[in-house]
Design goal:
The chain has 13 helices and no strands. With 396 residues, it is an all-alpha fold.
């Protein structure tokens, strides 16, 4: 069965469709339809923004840590450089002091005297060791029986007597030669040779009889070394004595270092004295009593104006006595001569100490000391500033 629709129904339907299409055409190309984000996209964008902010914070933290590490390394480098500078300054001061000691005639004389003492002590040790060795050899050669034989003990004295005589002759000859006493030279040489020959014979005669030349040479070492050490002692004493005399002549006209040091020291030392608090009266209020010790402690003490309180002596007019003329003349002479040393002392104090061997090293040392003091002051200021900053942050 077919249903026929009227014509106006189709037209109205098409009209409605055209109207609907035209309305849709006006809005279908609007950007809001495509640019509007969905819920999933909004969630993803939120997560992305949070991650970007997290990464940004991490990068800023790393930058701060890197800057702090760089500052620490720079500070450590500065400290190491300052320490190296201080070590260099100290080494330079030591080098200047060593060079000053080498160039100073007084230091040369002191070094010469010290080396002479050590040299003579070392030679004395060699002589003592040779005497002990030689005494044991002689005792073994003379009394090999044992401790029951009395000669076993007295044989030690034989080598001691010979060695002591030899030492006295050789050292005494050097001492008297310093004063120009050179009499009986042949007799002294003959005595020395006789004593040396005797001690060598006592040490080697058992081995000479049997012809054991190896044992002879071994047991002759000790007495020969005693003689060699004493000869070296004689020569060294003479050479050192002559050198000390020449060095003393060179520094005779130079200023005394002790006097120079004394002049550089302050003339008077002002010792601080403890202020004595006066007893308060009964009428003073409590605030005045509390403020009195603070005022006295804050006031500087002038030691030059402190005068001990002494009772005033009673003026008694003594009877005039005629003074002898000799005493008057003596006192007048003393009063006339007394200003001269004072004037000379004033002139000497005003003049700089003479230093004929100054080559500018003292000025270099003073410059280095000033630089070292400046570095130390800078380090102290930096530490104080760091402590102040740390204290300020702690308070905040």
């Amino acid at each position: 069965m077919t249903i026929d629709h009227p014509l106006e129904d189709d037209v109205s339907v098409l009209a409605r469709r055209v109207e609907k299409a035209r309305g849709r055409l006006a809005y279908q190309f609007d950007p809001a339809l495509t640019e509007a984000l969905s819920e999933n996209e909004l969630t993803a964008e939120r997560q992305l923004a949070e991650r970007i902010r997290n990464e940004d914070r991490a990068q800023r933290l790393k930058q701060v840590e890197a800057a702090a590490a760089t500052a620490d390394r720079a500070r450590q480098t500065t400290v190491e450089i300052e320490k190296a500078d201080i070590r260099d300054l100290l080494m330079a001061r030591k080098a200047i002091a060593a060079q000053r000691r080498e160039s100073s005639p007084h230091a040369k004389l002191a070094s010469l005297y010290k080396h002479r003492g050590w040299s003579l002590r070392a030679l004395a040790g060699v002589v003592a060791a040779g005497m002990l060795w030689s005494a044991v050899n002689v005792q073994h050669n003379i009394a090999p029986g044992g401790a029951s034989d009395p000669l076993f003990w007295f044989s030690y004295l034989l080598e001691g007597m010979i060695s002591v005589c030899l030492i006295i002759i050789m050292i005494g000859t050097n001492k008297v030669a310093e004063w120009g006493v050179i009499d009986s030279t042949k007799q002294v040489v003959a005595a020395e040779m006789a004593l040396l020959g005797l001690t060598v014979t006592l040490n080697t005669y058992p081995y000479l009889k049997i012809g054991s030349w190896y044992d002879v040479s071994v047991h002759a070492i000790a007495p020969v070394m005693i003689g060699v050490a004493l000869l070296i002692h004689n020569a060294a004493s003479a050479r050192y004595g002559l050198a000390i005399v020449r060095a003393t002549d060179q520094i005779r006209d130079l200023p005394d270092p002790a006097e120079t040091i004394r002049r550089t020291l302050p003339s008077t030392v002002a010792w601080p004295q403890r202020p004595t608090a006066s007893a308060p009266t009964m009428g003073q209020p409590a605030q005045a009593l509390n403020a009195a010790p603070e005022a006295e402690t804050s006031r500087p003490v002038d030691t030059s104006r402190i005068v001990e309180s002494e009772p005033e002596p009673v003026s008694v007019k003594p009877t005039p006595k005629p003074a002898p003329k000799k005493e008057e003349r003596t006192s007048a002479t003393k009063s006339a001569k007394s200003p001269e040393p004072e004037a000379l002392a004033d002139l000497n104090d005003g003049m700089p100490p003479l230093n004929v061997y100054d080559t500018g090293q003292f000025r270099i040392a003073e410059t280095l000391e000033q630089e070292l003091a400046e570095l130390q002051a800078a380090r102290r200021r930096a530490r104080a500033a760091a402590r102040a900053r740390n204290g300020g942050t702690d308070l905040e």
